[in-house]
Amino acid sequence: MAPSRGRNVLPGFGITLGLTLTYLGLMVLIPFSALILRTLSLGPGGFWLAVSGPRVMAAYRLSFGASLFAAGFDAAAGLVVAWVLVRYEFPGRALVDALVDLPFALPTAVAGITLTTLFAADGWLGALVAPLGVHIAFTPLGIVLTLMFIGLPFTIRTVQPVIEGMEADMEEAAACLGAGRWQTLRWVVFPALLPAVLTGFAMAFARSLGEYGSIVFISGNIPMKTEIVPLLIMTKLQQYDYAGATAIAAVMLFVSFAVLLGVNTLQAWATRSRGQA
Amino acid sequence: MSIEVRGLNKAFGAFKAVDEVSFKVETGELLALLGPSGSGKSTLLRIIAGLETPDSGEVILTGTESSTVSARDRNVGFVFQHYALFKHMTVRENIAFGLKVRKVPAAETKERVEELLGLVQMAGYGNRFPSQLSGGQRQRVAVARALAPRPQVLLLDEPFGALDAKVKAELRDWIRHLHDDAKITTVFVTHDQEEAMEVAKKIIILDKGRVEQEGDPRAVFDRPATQFVADFVGETNCIETVAVDDGLAVWGSLRFSVGKVPKGVGLRIYFRPHDVYVTRHKESLQVSAVIEREFFKGAFTELDLDLGEGKHVTAHLPRGLSEASGFAPGEKVYVGIIGFHIFETGKI
Amino acid sequence: MAKGAPTEGSPLQTGSRNDFSRREPAWARRLLIGFSLVFLGLFLVLPLLLVFAGALRDGILPYWAAVTDSETKHAIQLTLGVAAASVTLNTIFGLAAAWLLTKFDFRGKQLLNTLIDLPLTVSPVIAGLIFVLLFGLQGWFGAWLRDHGISILFAWPAIVLSTAFVTFPFVARELVPLMDELGRDEEQAAMVLGASGWQIFWHVTLPNIQWGLLYGVIICNARAMGEFGAVSVVSGHIRGLTNTLPLQVELLYNDYQFSAAFAVASLLTLLAFVTLVLKHWSHHRQATVLREASQNPESS
Lengths: 277, 348, 300
Hints:
The complex is a heterotrimer. Chain A is built from 13 helices and no strands. Chain A is mainly alpha-helical. Chain A has a domain at 61-227: Orthogonal Bundle (MetI-like fold). Chain A is globular and about 65 Å long. Chain B is of the alpha+beta class. Chain C has 13 helices and no strands. Chains in contact: A-B, A-C, B-C.
């Protein structure tokens, strides 16, 4: 099944390797070494001080919590939307399909001011829930909703190709064996989609953790309440507390690495379990 | 336009794909590399083309040592198993590619492309795209493309593997005629022994990266040099036994005269189903047997024969003969072996 | 239902929409479609409408004034320039990396892949931070740059660098799976026919990947033009000088010039539309190429 693999007989190895390594070196390795070295220069005491203050802890809790929740919701809603887009026909389907990418194509600042205006107490949606005592803008709820907006394309676009590639025979076999539609979905279809759903979740989570542009408008940036980690880093930078900013960034990076590793492993598992070598 | 390989070795990790292979292909020859999957035949072909580099050994093309020459400069024509046609180019552009990269003038290119289109019977398809062609048509375009820059040799990697039976038969015929017309040294790889015997004038049989036998189709079929060849080529009966006395082997009630084999040496005896002689009435040296099953196979009938003591033999009879004799399951008949090959398996 | 042996990679989708063993009951379908439409309508369509409503709230003349204001014009120029530079750099890199990763086998491929994916998981603020650490006054090169009168930080070079960093995976990530799927056979065929490396790339590879490349470039560009966090850190927010369009939006918004902010935002939204259209179209064209590549009819 594997296409013919000539061991490196094609031309261009040297030049592409050189270009790739140079670019990666300049763009990734050198800047990141600066980060790591600066972090190390803090020493363990300094490092701990910078990353363990109550304000920082509150920011971590908020960032992680909001991202988890938003990614979780996006994973579920994304699965439904992806299923509807692939399996059902309705007028305007192509338009909706193209629209799904909007949060990805739209600059985060635009998303930020728009969602803030939308959810403010006098905004189109904010005004609807204000009488119920629910405030969205400048609260963690607003942050979660905004992260849901940002993460949606990731979950949908990860699951969609998997649904498209699903072969008909599995479901047909289940039907022949007497399974009801719900049973087939639960025991045959969903397990097959689970790896992709998890991957989409992880990607949305990773994206949400680092999101800055849209949150900075809707959150109000109240320390200890609605201050997310990227904002905290920004604040420290503006105060020239390079050390503090770097330390917090290092922790974030570490988590990002872990997430990246997790995503890659999930993707490898998903590919293997689909039977594609 | 000859090819010679000497002492070629190639391993992929722990897997030895090519193991001390040496052979020569004379100018104008049509050679088949035949073997099961994993026998290294495709790897060998790709080494000759320069698409793989051997771990050791030499590749000599028309007298020039070429192991370090890049595939680009070897001037070999290579036809891939899945055609590898340039999908965004028309048939004409595909065929012209080898000429274009050599900066051949437009007029000359045009002429050569037309000539090749005619040669492969695809005239009129020049402006089609590969996606608009059937598998057989794509294969012919692939051959034309490979021939366009007048290569010194033509190499084909399982060229008919992906096609269905009737198309395969037509293309085998076509390749033979093409070779006769173009007179170009040709090597093709296949796992289909019928194809090898039908198309090629010389066959090299490979197993596990080694050359098992080299010879023309008749030699390979009638005089297998190794047990592998005896097993692999054509259908065969294989029995294991021991020389009970100098020059004599026995299997059930069958007795084989085995030349100079001394007493006590283990043997494997191979004989073809069509060398099994079945009659109603006993003739000399035959033994009795019962027909267990009878299979209709078109031009011949296959009989499964039970010789007693748990010994079974398969026979092929021409259809006319079996129908005239009216052989049916359950009948008692007499069986003799006309020809066989022996391989010693060691002293017991 | 299926004719002959199914070819690899082609799902038996014939008749899937009419195949009753694979359908949910009508009420369930309507419910799910309804949910999706309402959900997406609230989440996607409403914000879109709001951008234009906010932009045109004070009428068309103020809208036009906001859009043609000199600060805005400069922001447009800067954004376009930065995007052009980043996209060009990243396209060259993406092509080189994709060729390296798909045409050759070597140790460390997986590591390279992971490194290329890195910016996707890094917060844009951190992306800006690392360049501050390098080029800021307290940074590694800060003193040297000041002595030579070169300003990288708080000037366009830093903006280009940080934007390029954030967007560099996109082209490569799009091309690698595509080129993996297309295989190496055509390139090897071209090589045996006598083509050089550039000839192979130009005549054989590029035409097969052109739509995927376009797709990658479009995504890269959209992200580059819209980048906010990283640029926010390194640009210094100097009005009329180092403000990109997204930064300009922030500036106007924080100044309570809401309709002007939305006016500039509407430009970016229009850009997003164009991006969506081109993205959809190029994805469709590339899918066609891939589909044709995996079909092998078996009759003469």
